[in-house]
Design brief:
mainly alpha, 2 domains, three-stranded antiparallel β-sheet, elongated
């Protein structure tokens, strides 16, 4: 069994090395985006988690050793065609997506259907490291700005603070808060979708449990951002503008992550109590 793992991992590393070499330019651009754009700063951790998924699913490696299936090369050829199309029409997201398809083709060539089943969740998770297409990112960002503005205004009104939403600006008694594009919560949305999918892949529960976690990612990200904006508005209303600026741009940005993770863990605890009795064998 140990020699089987070594053989598959050796071939896997070789194929992955060839794919990385072929896509080096695209990977360098993606890594530069992770460095420059806070919305994709989580991208550095995505490949590490994918490698961990491959490790914990190693029991799915074909027990008969290497079972080459040359139809996997057809998947690699399809990936190359997708990449050629991406270069011709300048579609970076398609170029990055062809990388994932090439990796799947390599695993299918090495291990056949079993190799594909073993590697698919890890390769699919790599999609979280790929920046969204510009049009989709703009559409999501605009929608999130509007939701964050209106929700924060409603929450402020509910706790007795005079607030009115005008576009993406919240008018307070003497000041105003602009919910700019950088504060739309898209970064949290991307991060929490990755976290939710990661938790869903790690926990062994009913498929509805996993779906519930993934669907909860968006509301949790929005809630964390609304709390950030609301706390800032309360500080401004209390004439603590200097503190509010620090909170809005620094402190709250760091605290949004633990808050969101706490909400996600609370949901997991609730779902675990809700579903576990129905999953116990009779």
């Amino acid at each position: 069994m140990a020699s089987q793992y070594r053989a598959v991992f050796s071939w896997g590393i070789l194929c992955a090395g060839v794919v990385v070499w072929a896509f080096w330019g695209s990977l360098a651009e993606i890594a530069d985006r992770w460095r420059r754009d806070p919305q994709y700063s989580h991208g550095w951790l995505v490949p590490l988690f994918s490698l961990y998924l491959l490790y914990i699913r190693r029991n799915l490696i074909p027990s008969t050793g290497l079972v080459q299936r040359w139809w996997g090369l057809m998947i690699v050829a399809l990936a190359m065609l997708a990449r050629f199309t991406a270069v011709m029409f300048y579609q970076p997201w398609l170029d990055a997506g062809s990388l994932l398809l090439a990796l799947l083709g390599c695993f299918a060539t090495i291990g056949g259907r079993a190799g594909l089943r073993w590697s698919f969740p890890a390769v699919a998770f790599l999609a979280f490291m790929i920046p969204l297409p510009f049009r989709l990112q703009s559409a999501l960002g605009g929608s999130l700005q509007a939701i964050a503005t209106k929700s924060s205004t409603y929450l402020l009104q509910a706790i007795g603070v005079p607030a009115i939403a005008e576009g993406n600006v919240i008018l307070l008694t003497n000041e105003r808060i602009g919910v700019m594009e950088a504060c739309n919560g898209l970064s949290m949305l991307m991060t929490f979708f990755a976290l939710a999918c990661g938790f869903a892949l790690l926990v062994e529960r009913h498929w509805l449990y996993a779906v519930s976690l993934i669907l909860a990612a968006a509301p949790i990200a929005v809630a964390a951002n609304v709390v950030r904006i609301t706390v800032t508005a309360l500080l401004i209303e209390g004439e603590r503008n200097a503190t509010a600026k620090v909170v809005f741009h620094d402190v709250a940005g760091w605290l949004m992550m633990p808050l969101g993770v706490g909400l996600l863990l609370a949901l997991m605890w609730y779902l675990d109590r809700l579903t576990r009795p129905s999953l116990r064998p009779s």
